[in-house]
Amino acid sequence: MAMRSAKTLTLRILMTLLALLVLAAVAAWLFLRGSLAMLDGEHRGAGLSAKVMVERDAQGIPLISGGSREDVAYATGFVHGQDRFFQMDLLRRVGGGELAELFGAKALPVDKSRRLHRFRARAEQALAAMPVEEKRLLERYAAGVNDGLNALSARPFEYGVVGAAPRAWRPADSLLVVWAMYFDLQGMQEPRELARGWFRDHSTAAQLAFLLPESTEWDAPLDAASIPAPPAPIPEQAPSWWGKPRTGKPAKLAMVDFADSVGSNNWAVGGSRSTDGAAIVADDMHLGIQLPNTWYRVALRFPDASGAMRRVAGVTLPGAPPLVVVGSNGKVAWGFTNSYGDYLDLVEIATDPARPGQVRTPAGWETPVLYDEPILVKGEAAHKFVVRATSSGPLREVGGRTYAIHWIAHAPGAVNLNPRKLETVNALDEALAAAATVGIPAQNFVAGDDKGNIGWTIAGLMAQRAQPGLASTFPMAANAASAGWQGPLEPASYPVLRNPASGQLSTANSRPLGGVGAQVIGDGGFDIGARNRQVRDALAALGDKADVAGVYGVAMDDRALFIAPWRERALKVLDSAALEGKPQRAEFRRLLQESWTGRASVDSVGYRLARHFMWGLHEVLYDGANSELAALDEKATAASASTRWPAVVARLLDEQPAGWLPSAHRSWRDMQLAAVDKAVADLTEGGKRLADASWGERNKAAIVHPIGNALPVLKRWLSAPADMLPGDSNMPRVAGAKFGQSQRMTVSPGREEQGVFNMPGGQSGHPLSPFFLNGHEDWVKGKATPFLPGAVRHTLVLVP
Fold it and tell me: So where does Ca(2+) get bound (predicted)?
């Protein structure tokens, strides 16, 4: 009897536990469902002047129509807040250095590096100085965000995971999101200057000129076929650090994935070369890719200043001011690529025991201003953090030296709402004039209008330099009063190109100009230029009957023109003597020959081997330097000091100067074979077969929601498929595991119905939404899908 009672009790306990588990699962499901966006029905919106229609298509892309720009801003905020609030929250926290409040002490290093710039305080100052109309636009957007958030039945699911409540959106937060993009797009300039400073300190002037060239044969500027600057002579001797190994060398090639993180292409074909006489504009911005995607697609309809209804279509950045970032307004289409101009100076600060508490800057001796910036930390007391600021910028200690960070992002006007002008410009010249006034990280701006005109300029804040040139790309001495940037460049001084004779324009993060304008922009880390050369030549090959399909197809070009010469070098050195008794070298050669498609295709082993060979050479020659640079800044590398290092290495292999051969190798041939052996060791680590080392195996998408990375148990539900991706960094089709074409757009203004678009993630950041991964497969395959929203599937009406 007692045994039967015990069994009954055990069964009851098990049934109770099972019931509790079921209830917990149901509660979790209901919680998740409760944070899905409203798609249909009617919602009362405070402060609206009239009703606003939000009509979504099968992909969740909204056409937002309203009677005023402010009402449309409110509705944009509403859909952003419902679909993307957690993403927006992360962006404002990145801009303000406030991640530890959500994620705890592990986020403190990032927060401190961001808080040094005090962008939250700068955002409040910028907001206070804005014209009433612009401030009102941000206020209405913030109201829409908060109403959208509060209209959800449950807080966004991410907050349930991290155990926090969402914080209301404020108008200044939208400016912080733009400053977050400054970190993303100009954040490498500081480690780059540190790396170049190390090179300068450990090389002679002649060695430095050779190692850090200002241009190479790969450059394809807008204003010339090439840059005819003679290369610097190779000095007789290499620096003492050259070719030295690092201590504690990692098993894998240290830098083989570095080049994944350079990006963005845009181009335009003029009416003289298009099939219907209108300009065609294409843009694919390269960024880190995660879920949800960076961009949020929209079409906006509202009356312009004359009362005429305008339709602007393209992408917005959730959290940023509610403006179309790139797209078309029916008269003008435009796109951006990061300009990589010189917008930051590191100024070494001097001290003197006779002047306690003071520092010497280019402005003279001054006492730094101290700002208390306590950082809130989840589960802990606030972290005390003090910023020391000077007239040249906040101070940072690096390698026993103190630097002021003099960054254009600190200047008044670094963030503004002037991108709004692009929504209603009617012709190319208006767009070019507007671009020079916008407050964003400086971008290559390419635009075209419905009359067939095309043009280029820089959009965003540029730096006025008293002495433009190479010296500003190295850390500066405090007494260099006339060096460095002196203030923002006047819009009238921005370089501009209109309607070139070639009928085309293209930029891809490389040096855009070869003439005087190059000095105005400066070199803040230009790409080597191979990608833009390939874009330029592919556009030229379209001839005089270019159409949207052909212009879009350039973005899909994965031909391996940059890596092909490295394959030839590897094949040349792998002669019969090098293969004797070396079966892995023989296999390396066989695969270079037989598994080479001439493209960065997913099935190509040869492409991956040739690329590894090139980076193996980098490790042989620069690995010791990279070890030293990492001690200064984790992002400081030889490749960040100059992306042109492959051209430097190619010259050495061609000329083979004795004074540059690393002492560990008997000949240049032996050095190249050592690079082959490094590639083999890397790719066969753990017993892997070299024949299985396809490019697709390496280039697998790892596109994940941040919560999926934080909690691996949820990763399978918060990730895109691990697709093998064709493409690489030095070709138009840029693709990496977590980096690549964050959107692809090709459109003719006034002919938007013919335009095409795709992006790697859907509209929603919610895994239960039908729009979470909608469109991802089209992006993987490069399928050209419509630029404009399709047939209406859902209608939400926002009413006063």
Answer: 193, 342, 345
